[in-house]
Specification:
alpha/beta, Rossmann fold, Helix Hairpins, 4 domains, 7-stranded mixed beta sheet, two-stranded antiparallel ribbon
Amino acid sequence: MNNNSTSKIQMQTDKQIALAGNPNSGKTTLFNELTGSRQHVGNYPGITVEKKQGTYIQDGYKINIVDLPGIYSLSAYSIEEVVARDFLINEKPGVVIDIVDASNLERNLYLTVQFLELGIPLCIALNMMDEAEKRGMRIDEKLLSRILGVAVIPTVARSGKGKDQLMAAVIEMMSHNKEYTPLEISYGPDVDSALLTMTKEISTADFLTERYAARWTALKYLENDAQMIAAGQEKNPILSARLLKIREKLAQHLKDTLDTYPEAMIADSRYGYINAILKQGVVQYSHDDNRLYLSDKIDKFAIHRFSGPLIMVAVLVGLYQLTFTYSEAPIKWIEAFFEWVHAMAASALPQGLLQSLVVSGIIDGVGGVLGFVPLIMFMFLGISILEDSGYIARVAFMLDRVFRMFGLHGNSVMPYIVSGGIAGGCAVPGVMAARTLKSQKERLATLLTVPFMNCGAKLPVFALLISAFFVNHKAQIMFAITAISWAMALLAAKFLRLTVIKGESTPFVMELPPYRLPTLKGLIIHTWERTWQYIKKAGTVILGISILVWAMMTFPQLPEEREQMFVRERLEMHSAYPAAVVNELSAKNVQKNLSSAAQALRQKLSRIEGKRAEAALRHSLAGRFGIAIEGISKWAGFDWRTNIALVGGFAAKEVIVSTLGIAYSLTDVDTEAFDSLSETLAHSPNWNPLAAFSLMLFVLFYAPCFITVVTIARESGSWKWGFFSMAFNTIIAFVISVVVFQAGSFLGIGIRP
């Protein structure tokens, strides 16, 4: 027995523990209870800050304890904070006991969160439990422990209650010597982006990594921590200057958009994180608490389990209704502009490949995508209002309960929203946002299903088809598409978690930032940044792909004998009419004041030219492919032209609109009038509302765009998951489209009489 006790004492005297916490949290009282008379007081080297040390002896254990100065944070704002932080970094205590005032939980947990971000071994002493009970507070310490992933022990330092259980937990931690993963909080897209860039540079350059984790260093630079910046400038002045430049750029951006700065944004996010913890049921009151802030009062309705979802649905339907209503007129203006450009180019350029390239490949291809800029802009404006006000975080909070039912982590909510869970996002940053998930299986399930969201690239396709076939129900159809995307993503995630990615779900906390009134300048900047990205993509990537698609839809050209056959038909048609009628049709005023004979001739010639154009498109490389798979795609209601567009959509979903524009432009040779693409589809015999809805579902779910596939492969660490997402998503999309189209056809729903 003595030998066993001696080995315990020897094992534990190799390390020391530290007591930390806010001033007036009962830290010194607990220190006195643990050490008794076995303590001494001195000063930290070179400074006047008091250093208290003592020894805890119990059941053969002898542990050295250091009572750190009372602090509110780990930022270098005071000498006490510098001392405490330096001790934790340099001395590396075996365990840090964080004394938290249970009656002021929100304020005290702010320091706790920073300890967790630092990645140190932590044990929480939930002190002053008697005071909390007097205030009518009931704290679920087991739930708090499960959420934070650390031991939480209730104590009353004045009476010594709970100290034995606390030290038992500390000894248990020290005996395991496990590594602790730093907590990673999301500070919002702007801060997170800067943080990610800085962390990568710090890791690559091995900058201060001998003392601090790379993310922690980046965080301190963003918080403008003087001590950290001084150490960085001494270590690597060039890299330090680069990091400061990133911070300055972020600070200016936040000032312009939200009228705030990085330090405040980070602090708000931490308090939002804490607020979300408390709202998980950690704290309950036995009587009404009249000290609720405005955000809390709003949240009593906004995230209530009954009223919250109803409010969310109303907000989304309202967003779509306003978007379609107010973007309708600007869309018509842009369509009219491209109609004019189309007509001008067609009349200015001689018939041939150059005219076809400019008119069909560029103007009709890119113009079809740019025509939806107003809708995209209004959608982004609405999303910016929801984001800047803090409501998006509430949506994520409410969806957490649902996500856990489908085997996903609550942190998966934000990647879904970033990918376009409301509308207008992008799957690439959504996939990258899954990095916040610590479980490999939950991260994999998330990044494989976020492409199901209604991203900004899919919006032009939906807007095109809704405008053509669902004119009186635009907002309702758009909301239905959004709801279907969420439902299918969750079902797919559940399927994956039950089959190829089995595993238990881990606890979740969602940050709830305080509500803010968005600034006009911030909304303008956010909306313009996203809209400009869309325009730039249309003018670069989409333009390049449109030209490539035009070439695939133009070459190889019809054989000479087929061309001659159509030439003979035209000559025969000319010979059937008097020369005066033919000359009238050849005049420059061909669009106006035609005689009935000339009009008849023009219509017949247009039909011949239409047959030739369709034959040429069918003979082209793209046409042959579209026809080859039409035997399968027809089950979902897709003809060969749609097949061509969907293949182009593998590169980027906006290409679907531009490819349809090119396909119908190449075969629609009626020069009397130019219809918008939506009008063309609405009057096409191959289309109906059922086929349009089937196509929307397929576009919603089928293979992610190429850059998303690359990102999935990079984030998952294997190309097999990138290829898996292409195959898995496309199979799901096709099955859903076939079921909907065949069922609708059987029931006669959405089919023209």
